[in-house]
Amino acid sequence: MAYRATSVGPDGVGCKVEIVELPQAGRYRKVFGVLQLKHPALVDVARWRQCVEDGKRFLAMWGEQAEALGWMSADLFGLHTAPERPHPSYRRLSRYDATGLVWLLQRRPVVALTEITAAIENASGNVTVYRKHNKPALGPVGDSLDDLE
Known about the structure:
This protein is α+β, with helices and mostly antiparallel strands. The chain has 4 helices and 5 strands; from the N terminus they run ββααααβββ. The protein has one domain. It has helices at 29-37, 45-68, 73-77, 101-105, and strands at residues 2-8, 14-20, 110-113, 117-121, 127-131. The chain is globular. Residues 138-145 have low confidence and may be disordered.
């Protein structure tokens, strides 16, 4: 089911809004609905639009399974909380350790989903594994600071 609305502001500029409700969206419906309406601060508009498209595809294919496996809205659509006065170069998507799965898809399909990981197929055919928890913020060393010992 889709909802469409058009509004015109006092300046005469119109805005069309389309919200697509996905039956598979279950627990994610509210967050995904808000995401469709307005791009988050400090996120490039093109990247936001791609996230919405990727979110539609992901929820249609994996929404029910993600919910059954315990994936939360933040695990899929989460972003780093922006500082009160961010530096001009700050980008919310630069914090991989606080970025939800769907933001990272960028047209790539999820090919497998478990309670803690998602397998993302790259154009080359290689698979990238996204970890819901214990994301290595320090690089490819490992999942924990214990790996540095």
